[in-house]
Amino acid sequence: MTSGIHHVTAITRDIQANVDFWMGFIGLSLVKQTAGFEDADQLHLFYGDPQGSPGSLISFLAWQGGARGRVGHGQVAEISLAIPRGRIGDWLTRAMQHRLQVEGPGREFGEPVLRLKDPDGIIVKLVGTDMPDTGWPAAPAAIRAVTIWSEVPEQTIHFLSQFGFRQDAAEGGLTRMVSDTDVLDIRDASGFVPGIPGTGVVDHVALRVADVPELEGLQQALSGRNSGVTYHDRKYFQSLYVREPGETLIELATDGPGMAVDESPDDLGRTLMVPPHFDDTTDLRVRLPQFARPGEERIPMRDLPFEHRLRQPEAPDGSTVLLLHGTGGNESDLMPLGNRIAPGATLLGLRGRSTEEGIARFFRRNSMTTFDQQDIRSEAEAFAGFWQGAQSAYDLDPDRTTVLGYSNGANFAAAIMALHPGLIRRAVLIRPMAVLEDLPQVDLSGVKVLTLTGARDPYGQYAPRLNDWLRDSGADLDAQIVQGGHELGAADLTLAADWMKEG
């Protein structure tokens, strides 16, 4: 039986910081980037040795700006990487040079250990082993161990022993299980809090299975005792998911066909791969976050009042489309639309900061047609600060920036034009209405606006008040009615694209 760890998968909230740590500091190779097999809007990166060998792989799902999880029992809490024993001092120096907080060296099970955290707070241990020393600098060659926190450690140990791991030693609340290549450390976490999924936590650990026949045998054996066993084709390996008695998610993954099944060995990780069951590849690629490898040119993201995402096209034309989503959306929702109407534009998507029953909005509402006036004003003020910072940070030209808003985002943009005239100079407002109770007298001369109202939109009856105010304020208004409801449609794309081309 093949035994050992195949890979570990965790969740990050900042893909660029993640790449900088795992490729830049740790030195692993990026061997695969793919859209998520379950949720294509999740970027999934695999790091490992240059060949993408099982046992070296650490992968991350990107939840950009996502809620943080909590480490507790029923989770992998630590990832250990194997380094030559004599290189502990070099890694300690490297960590200090990178200004990383590091603990140690200490000793665990007789091995020297350095403890640090990745940008999401995941504990990463560098463990000195008797592996060959290939020189310095050199990335860790493989995963040494993972630490599983269990409320029922004896049951967890018994369950994992069927996959080629055997109980070896105990130390300080940890029970060590060893395979032919690596280690599982099981910590007695009884009485501790349960883990909560989210960013900064490990989603699962995958254990190695030789091939599909062995995996099918395990599926048959496990299904009789665990109704939660599920089979998946992950293209690069076949796998089963199962919960061990302590609730940690365990994946059983075949060694093959491997990461080179759709890329040459010399080009692993260079191209974004989309799983074959997703066919909306153009829009999908626009929604996924961009990143730069260490040493590549990049735009440093700034800490500004709104959670945001910047996407640059392959051939930027110097224009920008600033995207404001509708109720329940996020900073990437309108990126496909923005890309279609202005393929050469840099896209800047914002996420609303007000929430309603857990979903994002740009301001609170009191009812379906009345709105929190103070919240609108305070958020508009925050946007003014954001936009000033974004122009400087990302070298954006306000005269070549178009604000594209849908529904709640369109209403927010209109309110900004009223409260901060001149801040927005071009706007496409899809399904808008006036949300300010008192529309001020302002001068919008030189401001160009396209409004798109749905003929069957139940909110369409409120659009004329906004259109009249825009005209009275001196805006260059093109007010169009499309055959549709409140939803976005093909007519919106066509009219917006034509309007953008007219300048």
Can you walk me through this structure?
The chain has helices at 15-25, 88-97, 153-160, 212-223, 281-287, 335-341, 373-394, 408-419, 463-472, 490-502; strands spanning 5-12, 29-35, 43-48, 57-62, 75-84, 102-108, 111-117, 123-129, 142-150, 166-171, 174-178, 183-188, 202-209, 230-233, 237-243, 249-257, 272-273, 308-311, 320-324, 346-350, 354-356, 359-361, 401-406, 426-430, 448-454, 476-482. It has a nine-stranded mixed beta sheet, with helices on one face. The protein has an eight-stranded mixed beta sheet with strand order 6-7-8-5-9-12-11-10, covered by helices on one side. Strands 18-20-19-23-24-25-26 form a seven-stranded mixed beta sheet, with helices on both faces. The N and C termini lie far apart (66 Å). It is built from ten helices and 26 strands. The chain is elongated, with a radius of gyration of 26 Å. Helix 5 packs across helix 6 (335-341). Helix content is 22%, strand content 32%. It has 503 residues and is an alpha/beta fold. It folds into two domains: 5-270, 2,3-Dihydroxybiphenyl 1,2-Dioxygenase, domain 1 (Roll), CATH 3.10.180; 304-502, Alpha/Beta hydrolase fold, catalytic domain (Rossmann fold, 3-Layer(aba) Sandwich).
